[in-house]
Structure formats: structure tokens, C-alpha cells
Amino acid sequence: MKLATLRTADGTRAVRLDGDVLVDLGHSDLGELFAQPDWKAKAQAKSAVSGVTYPVDGADFAPVVPNPSKVVCVGHNYTNHIKEMGRDLPAHPTLFPKFADTLLGANDDLVKPAETDALDWEVELAVVIGKQVRRADEQQAADAIAGFTVMNDISVRDWQFRTIEWTQGKIWEATTPVGPYVVTPDEVGGTRPALQVTTTVDGRVMQQDDTGTLLFDPVFLVQYISTVITLRPGDIIATGTPAGVGNARDPKVFLLPGQTVVTEITGLGACTNKVIEA
């Protein structure tokens, strides 16, 4: 299934893609849907014939989960990206947080913060949690994955590298597109999918890799992070970005107003965001 949170005139709605329409699933957003123990059966049972629907054409996608209890991001998880940043391969995942206020819809404009000229792109496979889990074993971790989505972990590099701790460069308000869909594992080859990830800026390919080359795969990350803290329905784990970020280029290249950045993952869809002035 492909699931989304749609903005409507009456507020946000959780929906399922069914051909050229989006079927209303009876919940305000995917976070609320995933909190239901039988969410998958309920989402599958809704009919486009008898239920409320919305056209896909012109759909205004909200972040797939507008208010997750937490967003946990992973750095240094593709070998090529680690090498381009001049670092050694890590023995353990490198984690940092984001907050709900950082999230954007898949097609929203990206407002360049006035405080930076070092706005960078990072395409990422994101895991969306569908079941509460703590200290998960491998099977529990796999079962807790509701699906996958696309994230562009936009980074404010000059603020990120002010200190050895990255968070201040990663949590700028309304700078992280995520969506358009949460796609269930059965549609992408399971809970350890091998999918092509790509970033383009004004049509120029900047990043391209395969999620099958992740050092720490989605199931392992759910196990690892749930050891530290309870993962709840709607929580998001961003699994890291491959080589090709602007900060690692010589000379460095960053996003400018007027440009369009597209982060895409095969089978999941794309975030398409125009950069605009503050």
C-alpha cells in the first residue's frame, strides 16, 4: 500500500492511493492511523467505491506524519559518503534528532534561512514506525516497520560545523521535506530494501546510490534505537545519505533561491521542492 497524509479544506486526512484517487481512511493523519493496532487491515479494507476520495492530481501532501513523537537521524551510513567526508567507517550508528517543526510536505517550497549561504541536500530512505517497540529483537524490529518514505535532510552546513555536535545545523524550522507516501515493505522487497536513491538540482544529478549498501540497515536501526528509547507509531528514522552532497564538492555547491531540488527513491516517489528567499 501507498499511504499519505493529505491537506484538505477541512484539515489533514490519512489516505491510501488507489489508482488515480486517494481514499480517506477515517483518520486525521498517518500518525493517528498507525496508532491503531489493526491499522493495516483497516487501511486495506477502505473502498474507493463507498468511501470519501480525493484526486491525486493536484494533491497537497502534508509531511507523512505531521507530528511524530520523535525523528531520529543517522549519519555516516553509506561507505562512499563517509569517505567523501574524510571519516573512518563507524562501529556504531551516529544518531542525532530532528523535531516535528522541521518537517515539510513533499512538494512544499523550501525557504532558505536568511542566516546561511550553505544550504545543502541529503536524500535519505526514511523508516516509519507502525508499532510501539522497546529493546526489539530482529523479528520485532522488522514487524515494527510500517513502511518507508523519502526524506531530504536539508542541512545548514555553516551552523552544523560550528561545533562537533551537528544538531543546530539539522533542525532549522520547515526545512525537511518528507513524503509523499509511506510505502509498505511488501511493495519494495521487504524490510531491508535495495532501492535507488537520487538527488537532482535543476535536473543535474548530484547523488545516486542504492539503499542495499547501507552500513546499518533499517531493521538493525530499529533494534539499536529501540534499545535506547521507545519507538512509537509514527516515529521516523532517517537512515543517512550517500555521496554527492554539496559541502563535499570542490568547490562547494549549495542551494540557491530559484532552484528546484528533487530527492527520489525508486518505488517510493519524490520530494520536489523549490528554494525561495526568506
Automatic annotation (TrEMBL):
InterPro entries the record matches: FAH, Fumarylacetoacetase-like_C, Fumarylacetoacetase_C_sf
GO MF term (any one): metal ion binding
One of the protein's GO biological processes: carboxylic acid metabolic process
Cleavable signal peptide: none
Keywords of this entry: Hydrolase, Metal-binding
Domain of life: Bacteria
Domain Fumarylacetoacetase-like C-terminal: 70-275
Family: Belongs to the FAH family.
Name of the protein described by the UniProt record: Fumarylacetoacetate hydrolase family protein
